[in-house]
Amino acid sequence: MDLDKKPGAKTRNSGIELLKIAAIVLIVISHVVQTLRSANPYVPSGSYVIDLSVATVDPHKFLLMLFSYFGHWGNTVFFICSAWFLLDSAKWNKRKWFFMLSEIWFVSMVILAVTMILRQGDVARVMILRSFLPTTLANNWYLTCYLLFYPIHPYLNTVIRKLDKQGLFRCSAALFVLYFGFAFIKRDLFFSSNLVLWIAIYFVMAYIKLYAPEFAASTKGNIILLLIGFAGYVGIAAAANAAGLHISALNDKVLHWATNYNPFLVAMSVALFNLARKLTFKNKAINYLSGLSLLVYIIHENLILRMYYRPALWDLVYRSFGHRHVAAWTLALSLLVFAFGLISAAIYDVSLRRLVRKAANGVFSLARTVYLKAEARLLKPR
User: Fold this and answer.
1) Which long-range contacts (CB under 8 A, 24 or more apart) does 138-144 make?
2) CB neighbour class for 168 (10 Å; exposed up to 12, middle 13-18, buried from 19)
3) How do residues 329-355 score in pLDDT, each as one tens digit?
């Protein structure tokens, strides 16, 4: 999801692009599990829902609980992949930023129109409103957060360049402790948010890139970091589940640690990125599929699809098979959702994307002209 990269660009390291594909698969699995564990007012039967926030001795439910972490893991991987390259840029591409904004809106409108036809207008008013404002109302939090982060990253780079090694280390360490330490325990500490978390990760990646290149290039060091992160990721989930089985007050808190604040997910993401960078090969197919990742994200997690159609899939599976082999069904439905998103993205890419880009460029040029004139008038000395 890098605005400065084009799908299939020859300069792309396919090792990193392969990691991005893995990340979107992790995100899809997490979202399919999220549907399974969330009651939905738009599906007549909610009997398929499994409460994964409650401690369990069922290994299948515990596995699903681990799957719930995958979205946070995949999102962190995506951001780190972008952050590494954004650290080298001195400005942001406003035209490409506006195209991403326009593309999110256009896809939302297409899915709304198709759904209105298929359901003969039976779409809740709030769903229609949110479909018209997908970014403003953060239908996909990652996309809205990225659109906010991208314009400020050059200014963060300016701050980073003005810091020496000690200053950057102290700043990075302080941010990490505050938001992946204290805020991990209690999320509302120090006014935390996903945007603040990304800034913290950005400073950490800046220190690694500028002052710890030996670690970034170390296979052994990053494998150790990956293992530590994985042990912490599984360990804290298992500990929370065990505590919930023995302490009633903690019985429904087992998913408390499945958040973007989890430092073990960050550790695994950093390690995987560093290891992927060492896979220096070029593959056009991998690069193209990775270049569609933004579209796959937009499509598969579209508000209407996740509120009307994905619950209907789970309802169908439950009525046909119950909760037998539910973990296997989760992976099967995840593959189906991923394939649908990928095929839809590829069709859109070769058919409508060029027209959307052309229209977005026209609107952007007009809006830019109007804004600059208004700005000049407002700043004109009186």
Assistant:
1) 139/108, 139/301, 139/302, 139/303, 140/104, 140/297, 140/298, 140/301, 141/194, 142/1, 142/75, 142/78, 142/297, 143/100, 143/104, 143/294, 143/297, 143/298
2) buried
3) 999 999 999 999 999 999 999 999 999
